[in-house]
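lol ok so funny story. i was supposed to be doing the assay writeup but got distracted and ended up predicting the structure for this chain instead. priorities right. anyway since i did it might as well share w the group, maybe its usefull for someone
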Amino acid sequence: MIDRYTRPEMGHIFSLENKYAIWQEIEVLACEAQAELGKIGITKEEAAWIRSRAGFDKEEVDAIEAVTNHDVIAFLTDMGRHIDAGVPEGDPKPSRWVHFGMTSSDLGDTALCYQLIQATDILLDDCKRLGEICKRRAFEERETLCVGRTHGIHAEPMTFGMKFGSWAWELKRDYDRLGDARANVAFGAISGAVGTYSSIDPFVEEYVCEHLGLAHDPLSTQVISRDHHAYLAGVLATTAATCERIATEIRNLQRTDALEVEEPFRKGQKGSSAMPHKRNPITAEKVCGLSRVVKANAQVAFDNVALWHERDISHSSAERVAQADSFIALDHMFQCLIRIVDGLVLYPNRMLANLDKTRGLIYSSKVLLALVETGITREEAYAIVQENAMATWHEVQDCVSGTSFRDKLEADSRCTLGSQQLDAIFDPQSFLARKDVVFDRLEGLEFA
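and the output, tada:
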């Protein structure tokens, strides 16, 4: 991922420095486990020496890999030099115990899973922050009237707080899914060439995994099966889709034709090189664009599940790119939305103006039900309402003067609803008598 979208905290997790540091810890833990087990020649003193002297130099590893064309061998060679520095000439080299009985995937796959839980922990914090902001803003805008839209068309009145509340609930589901996916990918494997433990005792795997906070894979082949990673990638894609949903709604409501909200516009910010009046929803648009990357990368993870026999490396190159990019992009998307939603500018007066834009058509459902209650059939009631609604709609559509939907109903002899009944029907609050139900539920929403 390009630097523009990479937050240092997330970028570090997928850096070579962090990967090598995890590799080093796994190798040291494996030596300590072997010493504890006492089945090969390594002593606890040698394990302690390895712990105290282990290290690596990224530039040196890179230089060695340029020759060996094998990243694990390059790392182990450099780590061995650090361990053996200071060992008297002629004495046995402690580095000989490093990677004893292990294969490259034991190191790489265990470390990768550890990196993925590190990265998921950041996303969990991101998701919680955004969700709590949405919940707070829901209650702030609990009474802010706006029109609800279905198919992009005005439907019935609602409150803007309900939009924030809906986002909060969806983010809570994402939060729970991320937690589940974290547990699903928190596995390690140190089982040897094809997973048979032919040259290493299972105790070493259990010891290393326990110290890293991982579960040991009950049956790895030579790799940890990529269904774990695919599940996580699918959750990342779902979470990205939630971010896209929020950003898309903001973009739509910021259109000049609606102009009910605006994403924060910083002092000194410019909207267009040609048109100084522009205040474009560029950050929300960026969130929508990056969501496409995360969703597309999920397909890469699904394709990585099917490997040849016990292992090939067709997955390796793809996931080196896709996994880092997905986490970095989603983290950036969250940072964007945290700023947007927290500072989202609302225009309640425009919302009220939009509510009345269709001259009362949004009350048609209440009129229909009220007419049915007078004793006529639903079909008769529907005909009365639709006929007057369509007449109003054509006047609205053509921007011509005319009477409101209510005026037309009052002039229609078939409509027997009295003035008081119509007053109650054409009050937007009549649609919101039970809105407290959803806010009472929202009170109990916790990200934990």
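The CA atoms of residues 166 and 384 lie 35 Å apart. The beta strands are 145-150, 153-159, 187-188, 215-216, 261-262, 345-346.
back to the writeup now i swear
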